[in-house]
């Protein structure tokens, strides 16, 4: 479908689980050479092995390797982006997906909790893009795809003010970054997922998942493949004239004014 993806060198942060793993699988299925990163080595190595085996079974020519890394640490971001270049001779696409969503009420939130969420979700996006920039410039078709959220940019949720601020901050970042990167032919866009079935979302519990399903016009949570498709589109040659933009992938969740409005 996306013929321009085959052979591209792709880095997916937080690619060891959930949405990031789905994005990595989507790129590998289109023949890309992917590096996934995350903090937990065992999970990462297992994911890379399974994703490479799936790409081999499909005969796509895609492959997936793991490099341990923490996006909140600029030195780690430099090491991971260098490792991706060493493995694949360059870097064409960076998916800034690593993120955490612990709940904390505004009343109880500690400075440490706020720093952790902003440090990974927002500053981590800056650090990875900064580290990848020289390689993306050399690529000639550099692409950055950020996993933001509906929470923050479009909606709110009690207990997630720090998370919402981090996800809205990512959009402020991409709009100015788009202008700086455009000079080098690099595009940067964001996908805004609604509620997507992942390991991270499972941790919020069955009551949360049930109430979310009831609020989604299409009647079910999204899949990691739904987000991968949007990321692949932004990475393709066909999307080369799109930059600084957002794409909501939420089953219609942000459309109704109330539950009654769903009919
Ligand atoms: P998940 O299942 O918990 O996976 C998170 C991934 O990020 C893991 O690979 C994790 O690996 C990695 N990660 C976390 N902190 C990291 C760090 N400091 N450095 C490097 N990697 C790190 O989460 P998910 O549901 O797939 O969410 C992924 C992204 O989508 C997040 O940015 C989230 O905000 C966004 N999102 C998710 C949903 C949803 O419904 N699931 C909706 C909207 C937006 P380690 O823990 O081993 O580091």
Describe this structure in words.
The protein has helices spanning 18-29, 41-58, 74-88, 111-139, 161-182, 199-202, 206-214, 224-235; strands at residues 9-13, 33-38, 63-68, 93-96, 143-147, 187-193, 246-249. The model has no long low-confidence stretch (mean pLDDT 97). It is an alpha/beta fold and 263 residues long. The radius of gyration is 18 Å and the shape is globular. The chain is built from eight helices and seven strands, in the order βαβαβαβαβαβαααβ. β2 (33-38), α2 and β3 form a beta-alpha-beta unit. The chain has a seven-stranded parallel beta sheet with strand order 3-2-1-4-5-6-7, with helices on both faces. It has one domain (3-250): NAD(P)-binding Rossmann-like Domain (Rossmann fold), CATH 3.40.50. It starts with 8 loop residues before the first strand and ends in a 14-residue tail after the last strand.
Structure described in brief:
The protein is an alpha/beta fold and 263 residues long.
Name of the CATH architecture = 3-Layer(aba) Sandwich
Sketch the topology as an H/E string, one letter per element: EHEHEHEHEHEHHHE
Main-sheet strand order equals: 3-2-1-4-5-6-7
Cα radius of gyration in angstroms: 18 Å
**CATH superfamily label:** NAD(P)-binding Rossmann-like Domain
- In DSSP terms, counting alpha (H) and pi (I) runs of 4 or more, how many helices? 8
User: Which cofactor or ligand species appear?
Assistant: NADP nicotinamide-adenine-dinucleotide phosphate
What fold name goes in the CATH topology slot? Answer: Rossmann fold
Mean pLDDT figure: 97
Number of discrete domains: 1
What is the number of E strands?
7
Give the helix proportion (percent range).
40-55%
Distance between the termini: 35 Å
Which band does the percent of strand residues land in? 5-15%
Which descriptor suits the 3D outline?
globular
Structural class: alpha/beta
* Largest sheet, strands/sense/barrel: 7 strands, parallel
